[in-house]
Design a protein that fits this description.
The chain is built from four helices and four strands; from the N terminus they run H-H-E-E-E-E-H-H. The chain is mainly α. The longest helix is centred in the N-terminal third of the chain and has 35 residues. The radius of gyration is 33 Å and the shape is elongated.
Length: 137
């Protein structure tokens, strides 16, 4: 039972739970960005350059054929458009992460308190200074 309780303690730590939440939110954010790029950003760009659908933009290395049994053999293609969509998604996610980290850093800087002004000297110190000054005269 020692290993089970050790595992339970490990899972119960805040860092593991925080990481799990971050992974789930990150996956959901990735889906949102994918939909944003595929459905909102790329169609107007494709329209601007003569109706090109980037998701179907490929370089065909070998056309589709049929084998001896009559079964279709798919074409061999390089998916340039899918790669371009993925790169745009990466840039959007990287920008979002950058902005979040920048905001967190800004909040941490605001929390750092400026050094406090030195406290006023006590009455005893003021009296001792007066005595010192009068002895110098």
């Amino acid at each position: 039972m020692g290993m089970v309780s050790e595992f339970k303690d490990f899972i119960a730590k805040g860092n593991v739970v925080d990481l799990a939440v971050a992974v789930v939110i990150g996956a959901a954010f990735g889906k949102i960005v994918t939909a944003f790029v595929d459905k909102i950003i790329m169609p107007p760009i494709g329209l601007l350059i003569d109706g090109v659908d980037f998701s179907k933009w490929v370089i065909t290395l070998k056309d589709a054929t049929a084998n001896a049994a009559g079964e279709a053999v798919p074409a061999v293609v390089i998916g340039i458009g899918a790669f371009l969509n993925t790169m745009i998604q990466f840039v959007i996610i990287a920008l979002a992460v950058f902005l979040v980290v920048k905001a967190i850093n800004r909040m941490h800087r605001k929390q750092e308190v400026a050094p406090a002004a030195p406290a006023e000297p006590s009455e005893e110190v003021l009296l001792l200074r007066d005595i010192r000054d009068s002895l110098r005269k």
